[in-house]
TrEMBL record:
Leader sequence residues: none
UniProt-annotated stretches for the region Disordered: 38-83
Alphabetized InterPro entries for the sequence: Rab-GAP-TBC_dom, Rab-GAP_TBC_sf
Name of the protein in question: Rab-GAP TBC domain-containing protein
Biased composition (Polar residues): 48-69
One Gene Ontology molecular-function label: GTPase activator activity
Domain of life: Eukaryota
Domain Rab-GAP TBC: 1-204
């Protein structure tokens, strides 16, 4: 209890304001909510292109029509049946006003709480570990260098899957760049991401561990990936299915230990 209390007091004492990223954090949380609350996206989850277009557009609200603020017929319900979320556009604000009879206060409060929590944790971590450093990690280990290291480890750890990606002409370079640069924030399910980042914030070498987490994800998804063609593979890699994060972390540690053991005896 003393350790927990000390960590809590340390967290409370860290500044949780970085104005330059706070707006981006709120936008990303809104995107997660749109993605999870949109029934059309849930039915067409395998359509990676549709997912990417919908999740990255700040103006697209497919669950409502622009004429009357109601859900289209193919969505399976009317406007009042689909909870709303905090808007990020003038159109979204207009939709909320037109559908004032919808009681979505609980959903909006949930979104505000999640946004506030994520914003506080990210800003506190950056203020505590990265912003104050004289030589940031990204300058010492730039993204191209980390991507090259990852691809080397990928080829060594999963040679058959790597060869399959090459044969299918999967753009693994763009996948690796996104996975490493954004710590899977764009690709993972939100609840899985929070569990993963909870572990990251508790270890001193999170960016090093992240390399092996990416390998562990590929290891756990290998069988499914080998049954897909190029476009399906890209869709899955940019919109990952629900994962057993505890297993992913355990596998990542084992992969790192195995590779270090091999290097020791080479």
């Amino acid at each position: 209890m003393t350790t927990v209390r000390n960590k809590f007091l340390e967290y409370e004492g860290v500044s949780k304001r970085i104005p330059s990223i706070e707006k981006d954090v709120r936008i990303e949380v809104l995107r997660y909510f749109r993605h999870r609350m949109n029934p059309t996206q849930q039915r067409h989850k395998q359509d990676g292109n549709s997912l990417i277009r919908t999740s990255r557009s700040t103006d697209n609200f497919p669950e409502y029509s622009q004429e009357n603020g109601q859900a289209p017929a193919e969505s399976g319900g009317g406007g009042p049946d689909i909870p709303r979320i905090l808007p990020s556009t003038q159109y979204g604000l207009a939709i909320m006003r037109e559908n004032s009879n919808v009681d979505d206060s609980e959903l909006i409060n949930d979104q505000r709480r999640l946004s506030h929590c994520v914003e506080n944790v990210l800003c506190a971590y950056l203020n505590r570990h990265l912003v104050s450093q004289e030589e940031p990690y990204n300058e010492t280990y730039p993204i191209p260098q980390r991507v090259a290291t990852f691809l080397t480890l990928f080829r060594k750890t999963l040679p058959e899957l790597y060869a399959y990606f090459e044969a299918e002409e999967v753009d693994i370079l763009s996948v690796a760049t996104s996975w490493l640069q954004h710590l899977l924030a764009r690709e993972m399910q939100s609840h899985d991401l929070m569990r993963l980042w909870d572990t990251y914030f508790a270890v001193p070498d999170l960016l090093d561990l992240h390399l092996y987490v990416c390998l562990a994800i590929l290891t756990n998804c290998r069988d499914a990936l080998e049954d897909l063609d190029r476009s399906e593979t890209m869709s899955m890699l940019f919109s990952l299915p629900p994962l057993n994060v505890d297993r992913i972390i355990s596998d990542a540690i084992n992969i790192r230990l195995s590779l270090e053991h091999d290097e020791m005896y080479e």
